[in-house]
């Protein structure tokens, strides 16, 4: 079930990697949660394979507004709010990378398709292997939000986590995708959040 979902998340990462390689920035700590604001109308259209990045103003469906990353004593929760979340297009993917104190990476993926608008959530290692973990997903088109949570033990009960997130929208054709970086105006600027400690 997760093979196509993993492929989608891997493809998003490959598209971004094809655009540029930017070193991550060190950041100070934040306890409990971190709220990140993103500018409107900063979605970028890319050709298949990641080429020819072009600004795509008005692409509200994949356009992050705010993303909240939370770590409690028992759970990790990510909530993303979009400009206008709609039941359109072939696929919407939200990919959230997490990094622990040892720089081990885990990805939480959400994939909603025209055949399943409520979406599927999953966790995988930095090498793309499934992590058996009970995830909770809520895609609310009325509130323009995607919320996914899972037990903190699924990522090793880390002392802190850092996050970064991307969205990808596929519309009528697979020849183009629309990307947005939740932490930056540019999809190629792959910064991490500040450290989020257990609340």
Short structural summary:
The protein has 199 residues and is mainly beta. 9% of the residues lie in helices and 46% in strands.
Count of extended strands? 15
End-to-end distance: 33 Å
Alpha carbon gyration radius: 15 Å
Mean pLDDT: 86
Q: Describe the largest sheet.
A: 10 strands, mixed
CATH topology: Immunoglobulin-like
What's the shape?
globular
Approximately what portion of the residues adopt beta-strand conformation? over 45%
Tally of helical runs: 1
Order of helices and strands: HEEEEEEEEEEEEEEE
The CATH architecture is Sandwich
- Number of structurally distinct domains: 1
Unreliable stretches (pLDDT < 50, length at least 5) are 13-29
In the CATH scheme, the class would be Mainly Beta
Q: Please bin the fraction of helical residues.
A: under 10%
Structural class by helix and strand composition: mainly beta
Tag the structure with descriptive keywords.
single chain; mainly beta; Immunoglobulin-like; ten-stranded mixed β-sheet; 1 helix; 9% helix
Description:
By secondary structure, the protein is mainly β. The chain has a single domain (3-197), classed as Sandwich (Immunoglobulin-like). 9% of the residues lie in helices and 46% in strands. The strands form 2 sheets. Strands 1, 3, 4, 7, 8, 9, 10, 13, 14 and 15 form a 10-stranded mixed beta sheet that branches. Strands 2-5-6-12-11 form a 5-stranded antiparallel beta sheet, with no helix packed on it.
């Amino acid at each position: 079930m997760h093979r196509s979902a993993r492929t989608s998340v891997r493809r998003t990462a490959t598209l971004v990697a094809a655009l540029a390689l930017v070193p991550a920035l060190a950041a100070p700590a934040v306890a409990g949660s971190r709220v990140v604001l993103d500018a409107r109308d900063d979605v970028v259209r890319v050709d298949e394979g990641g080429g020819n990045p072009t600004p795509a103003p008005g692409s509200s469906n994949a356009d992050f507004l705010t993303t909240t990353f939370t770590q409690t004593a028992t759970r990790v929760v990510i909530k993303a709010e979009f400009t206008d979340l709609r039941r359109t297009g072939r696929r919407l993917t939200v990919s959230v990378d997490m990094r622990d104190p040892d720089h081990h990476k885990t990805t939480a993926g959400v994939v909603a398709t025209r055949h399943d608008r409520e979406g599927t959530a999953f966790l995988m290692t930095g090498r793309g292997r499934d992590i058996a973990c009970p995830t909770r997903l809520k895609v609310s088109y009325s509130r323009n939000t995607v919320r996914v949570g899972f037990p903190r033990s699924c990522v090793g009960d880390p002392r802190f986590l850092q996050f970064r997130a991307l969205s990808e929208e596929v519309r009528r054709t697979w020849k183009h995708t629309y990307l947005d970086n939740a932490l930056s105006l540019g999809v190629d600027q792959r910064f991490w959040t500040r450290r989020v400690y257990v609340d």
